[in-house]
């Protein structure tokens, strides 16, 4: 299910975008839901994660750019697409990591290219997830939300941005399920290279100020992996 939002104070543009999105996603045989907003404040107050948000920039009250800045500060990682008559804000769009900046009137080819690219990224993201099972309990965790994994007495502790999830699993099996962004820096730890800020004195320093031990035999290999990851970002 793809969840989308359209935020524009022009009813005709909201209707036009909804029609374009519906037609495109039906052609792709996608399941989807679209929420409509005529002001940015209502969008910001909605406690829903949207995969894709289409935003006008010049709106009464909070502008689309201001709304995008607030969403990024709140840690929301939706794909943002600005749809506007104003070309002068294109550089500001880069600052909030917008996926595209489409000028009105909307070109059908440009719209399709934008949606093709975003759906490709969404598909890749959905494949980058860890399925955790603990009895009848099941949870799906995005790789990008996992800081590191730790094993203590045969129990895996998955440390995410918001919680710690524990379950029974062999660390070698877990290692196979994760992607190359995770490095086995110690017999008891798998760390997500995305969150490594620095390495010093046998410790990996993470963005959240936690420190993960690096075994002596792994230190050079770990440093090389971090540098290679940073170059590829």
From TrEMBL:
Which residue ranges does the record assign to the HTH LytTR-type domain? 130-228
Question: Which UniProt keywords are given for this protein, alphabetically ordered?
Answer: DNA-binding, Phosphoprotein
Q: Which GO terms describe its molecular function?
A: DNA binding; phosphorelay response regulator activity
Q: Which domain of life is it from?
A: Bacteria
In what residue span(s) does the Response regulatory domain sit? 3-119
InterPro entries to which the protein is assigned, alphabetical: CheY-like_superfamily, LytR-like, LytTR_DNA-bd_dom, Sig_transdc_resp-reg_receiver
Write down which residues bear the modification named 4-aspartylphosphate: 56
Function statement: May play the central regulatory role in sporulation. It may be an element of the effector pathway responsible for the activation of sporulation genes in response to nutritional stress. Spo0A may act in concert with spo0H (a sigma factor) to control the expression of some genes that are critical to the sporulation process.
- In Swiss-Prot or TrEMBL terms, this protein is called Stage 0 sporulation protein A homolog
Specify the species: Lacrimispora algidixylanolytica
Q: What is the lineage of its organism?
A: Bacteria, Bacillati, Bacillota, Clostridia, Lachnospirales
């Amino acid at each position: 299910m793809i969840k989308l939002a359209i935020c524009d104070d022009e009813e005709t543009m909201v209707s036009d975008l909804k029609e374009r999105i519906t037609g495109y996603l039906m052609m792709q045989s996608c399941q989807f839901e679209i929420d409509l907003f005529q002001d940015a404040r209502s969008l910001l107050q909605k406690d829903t994660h949207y995969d894709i948000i289409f935003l006008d920039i010049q709106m009464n009250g909070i502008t689309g750019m201001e709304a995008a800045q607030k969403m990024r500060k709140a840690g929301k990682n939706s794909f943002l697409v600005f749809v506007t008559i104003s070309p002068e804000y294109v550089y500001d769009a880069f600052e909030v990591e917008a996926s595209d900046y489409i000028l009105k009137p909307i070109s059908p080819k440009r719209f399709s290219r934008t949606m093709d690219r975003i759906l490709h990224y969404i598909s890749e993201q959905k494949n980058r997830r860890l399925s955790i099972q603990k009895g009848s309990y099941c949870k799906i965790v995005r790789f990008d939300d996992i800081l590191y994994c730790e094993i203590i007495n045969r129990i895996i502790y998955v440390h995410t941005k918001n919680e710690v999830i524990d379950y029974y699993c062999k660390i070698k099996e877990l290692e196979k399920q994760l992607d190359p962004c995770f490095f086995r820096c110690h017999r008891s730890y798998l760390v997500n290279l995305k969150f490594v800020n620095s390495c010093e004195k046998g410790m990996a320093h993470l963005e959240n100020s936690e420190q993960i031990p690096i075994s002596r035999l792994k230190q050079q290999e770990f440093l090389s992996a971090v540098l290679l990851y940073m170059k590829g970002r």
